[in-house]
Amino acid sequence: MRKLCKIACFMQSISEALSLAVALVLRADPDLYEIVGLSLYVSITATVLACAFGLPLGALLATVRFPGRGAALVLVNALMGLPPVVVGLFVYLYLSRSGPLGFLGLLYTPTAMIIAQTLLITPIVAALSRQVLEDLDSEYAEQFRSFAISGWQRIQALVWDGRYALLTVALAGFGRAVAEVGAVIIVGGNIDHLTRVMTTAIALETSKGELALALALGIVLMTLALIVNAMVYSVRATATRAAYA
To answer: What is the pLDDT of residues 38-96, one digit of tens each?
Structure first.
């Protein structure tokens, strides 16, 4: 009987917290949307930078044969699984006052969080884009040889033909960035109204027992995940229709 009462009380508290969470979302709570806005700013900026670095690297690895290419591929693929806390620690050491970049004063700022996320997802973008472009390069190898096109024209053709798959790669990078907690909490410090993003706020509010805000942020985060997955599906469907057009 006592166990049933505990379960009932638990379910009631969860129900109340969920109701408050939905109310926070629907009434556009300023604190909630400030956190969401910062999360989107940091993650989108990091994704753009990661694509700026990762896509050219992926194209280079896909189309150019050079000594040490095998080792470079192994390194890039290994960095895909780099623990976020290691990235956070690495960035922290460089940006701390005693570090070589400490004079910039970037530690515990959104810029530091962007740097950490960029380092984290650049290998993912590079490795996935390399696979996409290398598969296309193998498929079109004979055509490229027959037209005797330059290396730059070859890369342009591959990027254009693989644009839908590369957009999927970018969306995968964004999904990884927006869900990150380990690295950003180390270099950002989870400072209220400055560096608090959705994942770090969920961790903090849960530890404080403030489930309403944590659930509200969880709802927004899950909604973003669904939107990203829907976009990936849409891009793949568009690519399939274009291939058969």
So the answer is: 999 999 999 999 999 999 999 888 888 888 888 988 999 888 888 889 999 999 999 99
CA distance 136 to 144: 11
Handedness of CA 242, 227, 192, 173 (dihedral sign): negative
Quote the Cα angle for 144-150-154, to 5°: 55
Residue count (the chain): 245
Q: Residues 6 or more apart from 62 whose CB is under 8 A from it?
A: 129, 130, 131, 132, 133, 134, 137, 158
- Asked if residue 146 has pLDDT above 80, the reply is no
Contacts of 92 (CB under 8 A, 6+ apart): 99, 107, 186, 187
Q: What pTM was estimated for this model as a whole?
A: 0.85
Contacts of 166 (CB under 8 A, 6+ apart): 55, 129, 132, 159
What would the pLDDT profile of 221-241 be if each residue is shown by its tens digit? 888 888 888 887 887 777 677
**Both structure tokens of 126:** 């590079």
pLDDT bucket at 2, cuts 50 / 70 / 90 = low
Q: Say if residue 130 is exposed, middle or buried (CB neighbours under 10 Å; 0-12, 13-18, 19+).
A: buried
Report the CATH fold assignment for 30-244.
MetI-like fold (1.10.3720)
List the chain domain ranges: 30-244
DSSP code of 81?
A: T
User: Per-residue pLDDT for 5 more than 70?
Assistant: no
Do the beta carbons of residue 112 and residue 42 sit within 8 Å? Answer: no
What does the alpha-carbon distance between residue 116 and residue 187 come to, in Å, rounded to a whole number? 8
